[in-house]
Design goal:
Helices cover 41% and strands 16% of the residues. The strands form four sheets. A six-stranded parallel beta sheet has the order 3-2-4-5-7-6, with helices on both faces. The protein has a six-stranded parallel beta sheet with strand order 15-14-16-17-19-18, with helices on both faces. It has 577 residues and is α/β, with parallel strands linked by helices. Helix 4 runs parallel beside helix 5 (91-106). It is globular. Residues 212-341 form the Thiamine pyrophosphate enzyme central domain. Homotetramer; dimer of dimers. Belongs to the TPP enzyme family.
Length: 577
């Protein structure tokens, strides 16, 4: 063997025996079952994305980090494994941070991984490229935040991030990776040994037997009981046990919006069509994976009426108890374990709730459904919200396996009540904060993580926050049908600037054709002016699986200020002189 060849062979051996930060991060993620990364490429993570893709991880590149972060968050909700979002430093990190904070608020497991500037320059504020102390900024907005400075610590850092994201109450975790880390080298064998496969990341948390008995005693003694199912119950994926418990109890149930479908909205015990009545008149309320936040009027006030209430609450987070009102029977544990304990403790002869309560709810439901029916069957042109949603309601009933993504003001508020769901985790919406802009990120991740067709029903204002991702949908050829309820503005398109000149602050370009956007990227665009046209277009899109955007022309005068939460929008009573 020549000296040159021998030297080359030795160099090759040496090269094979080294690994670096790029490979260790990828290997750590793969070891822990990560199959998809959502993100936006750029300095310093451009090559990392390429290498992850080459290693068999699916890397979905977005047009904006906030949308990639929302995709990662809802992927976490759907799979119970932390969704991964990858961003560049500083501005890219900040864009992803909105999604991370929203994931934490909504209890979605997610890890935001961002490249960052070098510590020594950041700490001395010497003006590095995109210099920012990202770790300090992230800490108040997520469950946990970690920075990795040495390649040998990558394995343990990824393990800690995964465990923090999914254990207890799930949420967002930030992982800060300075640019130098990616290129750091170490012995390959030592590197492999430094990786950690997370074992039992979200262990069951069994409820105390006394707490279970107390809760069942309170529920058994109720004259007008009610069960409220929150998205925490849907996240738990204890679907069959929850169904058995609700049906065995005989208690009417009210699902929060993302818990719709845990039991079908058409189930005889569903009280969704009598929401106001059951909240006002119930005497015992069992909260399962639902929080008494603003969405439930904090458990007090006019919404809850004058009847005295006893609350039972099931949550994995002890600090949630007594957050707004007294909880007479707190049950701390994971929902699957709690529900199984309830079933065991109920025995064989659980008494049915009083028939007068059940019958009163049934009567109210029938009245409200009958009152709503004609509004959902109109075929006006331009459409109103009810006519358009009536058409979509039928489609979802015929396609219960499809995933519905929903955001907007009136578009969200009305769809929540009109469109029935039949299977769990098929309705994805704005969640606890009520933020706009989740639509396209949620739709993309839902299609990728489940392989199911997605119907995204968007207000025209809400769509504007993430609309450029229609190019992403077309690029990956995803089975996503977007319906934009276009009424020419925010809330409605009829406002007028009182002093002339610029358009009113809530008005968009009249007659906008959002469908042309989709056509520009090779997808299918349709302009629908009646519920019949809308129905035909959505069915065609769902049958074809092609990326489709339907511009649903809604009467500009349709819609109310701030949807159904106008009471949260302060109004001035002072008149200018």
């Amino acid at each position: 063997m020549s000296a040159a060849l021998s030297e080359s062979t030795a160099a090759g051996v040496e090269e094979r025996e080294l690994t670096d930060g790029f490979h260790l991060i990828i290997d750590a993620l793969k070891l822990n079952g990560v199959e998809t990364i959502y993100g936006v490429p750029g300095i310093p993570i451009t090559d990392f994305g390429r290498m992850a893709q080459a290693a068999g991880i699916r890397v979905i590149s977005f047009r904006h980090e906030q949308n990639a972060g929302n995709a990662a968050a809802i992927a976490g909700y759907l799979t119970k494994k932390p969704g991964i979002c990858l961003t560049v430093s500083a501005p890219g990190f900040l864009n992803g941070l909105t999604a991370l904070a929203n994931a934490t608020t909504n209890c979605f497991p997610m890890i935001l991984i961002s490249g960052s500037s070098e510590r020594e320059i950041v700490d001395l504020q010497q003006g590095d490229y995109e210099e920012m102390d990202q770790l300090a900024i992230a800490k108040p907005l997520c469950k946990a935040a970690f920075r990795v400075l040495h390649a040998a610590d990558i394995g343990i850092a990824v393990a800690r991030a995964i465990r923090a994201a999914v254990s207890g109450r799930p949420g967002g975790v930030y992982l800060d990776l300075p640019a130098k880390l990616f290129g750091q080298t170490m012995d390959a064998e030592k590197g492999a040994k430094s990786l950690v496969k997370v074992i039992d990341a979200a262990p069951a948390q069994l409820p105390a037997p006394d707490a279970v008995k107390r809760a069942l005693d309170v529920l058994k003694g109720a004259k007008r009981p009610l069960i409220i199912l929150g998205k925490g119950a849907a996240y738990a994926q204890a679907d069959e046990a929850i169904k058995q418990f609700v049906e065995k109890s005989g208690v009417p149930f009210l699902p929060m919006s993302m818990a719709k479908g845990l039991l079908p909205d058409t189930h005889p015990q569903s009280a969704g069509a009598a929401r106001s009545t059951v909240l006002k008149d119930a005497d015992v309320v069992l909260l399962m994976g639902a929080r008494l936040n603003w969405l439930l009027s904090h458990g007090k006030g006019k919404t809850w009426g004058d009847a005295p209430k006893k609350f039972i609450q099931v949550d994995i987070e002890p600090k949630e108890m007594d957050s707004n009102v007294e909880i007479v029977a707190p049950v701390v544990g994971d929902i699957g374990s709690v529900v199984n304990a309830f079933l065991q403790g109920m025995g064989a002869n659980w008494p049915a709730p009083p028939s007068d309560w059940v019958n009163a709810i049934s009567t109210k439901k029938e009245e409200n459904i009958a009152k709503m029916a004609p509004r959902l069957m109109n075929n006006k042109s331009p459409m109103d919200f009810h006519g358009a949603l009536g058409a979509l309601r039928t489609i979802v009933k015929e396609r219960p396996d499809a995933i519905l993504v929903n955001e907007g003001a009136n578009t969200l508020d009305l769809a929540r009540g009109v469109i029935d769901m039949y299977q769990p985790r098929k309705r994805l919406d704005v969640g606890t904060w009520g933020v706009m802009g989740i639509g396209m990120g949620f739709a993309i991740a839902a299609a990728i993580e489940t392989g199911k067709p997605v119907l995204a029903v968007e207000g025209d204002s809400a769509f504007g926050f993430s609309g450029m991702e229609v190019e992403t949908i077309c690029r990956y050829n995803l089975p996503v049908c977007i319906v934009i309820f276009n009424n020419n503005g925010i809330y409605r398109g009829t406002d007028v600037n009182p002093v002339g000149g610029d358009p009113a602050t809530t008005v968009f370009v009249p007659g906008s054709r959002y469908d042309k956007m989709m056509e520009a990227f090779g997808g299918v665009g349709v302009n629908a002016t009646t519920p019949d046209e809308l129905s035909r277009a959505v069915n065609a899109a769902m049958d074809s699986g092609k990326p489709t955007l339907i511009n649903a022309v809604i009467d500009p005068a349709a819609g109310t200020e701030s949807g159904r939460i106008g009471n949260l929008n302060p109004q001035s009573v002072v008149k200018k002189k």
